[in-house]
Amino acid sequence: MFGESLAADERIVGLQTPGGCGALRLGADLIHKANPDARILVGQPTWPNHGPLIECAGVEMVPHPYYDKASHTILFDRMMDALNQANRGDLVLLHGACHNPTGADLSLDQWRDVAEAVSKRGLVPFVDLAYQGLGNGLEADAAGTRLVVEVAEQALVAQSCDKNFGIYRERTGNLFVKASSRKGAETVFGNLLSLSRTMWSMPPDHGAAIARIVLDTPDLRADWNAELIEMCARIRTLRARLAAFDPRLAYINEQNGMFSMLPLSEQAVLELREEKGIYMAGSGRFNVVGLSDDNVDAFAAAVVEKMDG
Fold first, then answer.
1. Closest Cα to residue 131, out of 288, 296, 16?
2. Residue range(s) in the chain whose domain bears CATH number 3.90.1150.10
3. DSSP 85
4. What positions carry a catalytic annotation?
C-alpha cells in the first residue's frame, strides 16, 4: 500500500483490525479521543456505512459535494472549495480507489491538487482504501493514497484485505496512522492498543495469516497479483459491454472498481426488482462484478428500458 519509501517512515504505525469497518471505527475513536471537537469533511455520496461508523464515535461529519448522478461527473471544483475553506486540523475522508458507491475516482492530477490543499491547509487525510488492485492494479490504485500521506503531517489509512484477497468473511483489515514524530507514533500506537482492547480485544487471525503468507512468499504473491490483474480485466470487460449497449451508459467504462450508479429513480429500481428480479440499492448503485457474461446484456436491456420509461 505505501511502497518502500513510505513504509520505512518511523512515524507510521499500524494495527490489524476486523476488516476495513474495524479500521474506520478504530480510527474514528482515535480521532475523538485526540480531539472531541474534531470535524471530518465527507464527499457526497459516500459509502452508507461511513456515517454510522464515524458518527457513533462522536466525530462531526461535514458533507460536501463530490459526484453528480445526473451528469456522471465528479464535482471537483466544489470539493476543492470545501477543502480550501476547511480549518487547520480538520480531517478529510478520501476513497483511495474504486469509489463506493459511484466508481468515479480522482485522476492523479486531481490527487495532486488534493495533496496540495492538505499540505497548505494543514488537513488530516483519512483514506479508506478498500479495493486496492481492483481498479487499475496495485500500484496505480495506491498512488493517490501515497501522495496525500506523504505530504500530510498526520494521516490515517483504513485498509481492507477482504476484497482483494477474496477473504471477505474473514474480516481482515488494518488501520495505519502517521504521526508528526516518532515519539508521537509511539503514543498513537499505545492508544490504538487500548481502544481496540475495548472493542474486539484481538482480531481473528485466519484471514491475516492467509494474507501474510501470500505476501511473504514470492511465488504466491506473484500468483495473487496475476489473479488481481485477471479480475481487473474482467471488470473492465463488463464495464465496456455495458457502455457499448447504450450511449447513456458510456460513462460506466470510464469508472473503476466494483460499483457504479445508474440514473434510475427509486421507483424504477423497485420495478426492476419486482418485474425482472434485478436487485440494486435504491440509489441506483449496482455491483458490476455481480454480473455474469450470460446476463450482462439482459441486465443492460432492462436498465435502458426503465431509462426510456
1. 288
2. 218-308
3. T
4. 47, 128, 130, 163
Q: What is the pLDDT of residues 18-50, one digit of tens each?
A: 999 999 999 999 999 999 999 999 999 999 999
User: For domain 218-308, is the CATH number 3.40.50.1980?
Assistant: no
All CATH 3.40.640.10 domain ranges of the chain, comma separated, are 3-213
CATH architecture of 3-213: 3-Layer(aba) Sandwich (3.40)
Report the C-alpha gap between 24 and 166 in whole angstroms.
20
Per-residue pLDDT tens digits for 230-272: 999 999 999 999 999 999 999 999 999 999 999 999 999 999 9
235: its cell numbers: 471488470
Whose CA is closest to 247, among 306, 285, 300?
300
Q: What is the mean pLDDT of residues 86-115?
A: 98
Strands (E), the chain: 12-18, 39-44, 60-65, 67-68, 73-74, 91-95, 124-129, 155-160, 172-178, 259-261, 285-287
Q: Tell me phi and psi for residue 224, to 5 degrees.
A: -60, -45
What are the tens digits of pLDDT across the range 181-239? 999 999 999 999 999 999 999 999 999 999 999 999 999 999 999 999 999 999 999 99
Of the candidates 182, 191, 126, the one whose C-alpha atom is nearest the C-alpha of residue 152 is 126
Burial of 139 per CB tally in 10 Å (0-12, 13-18, 19+): exposed
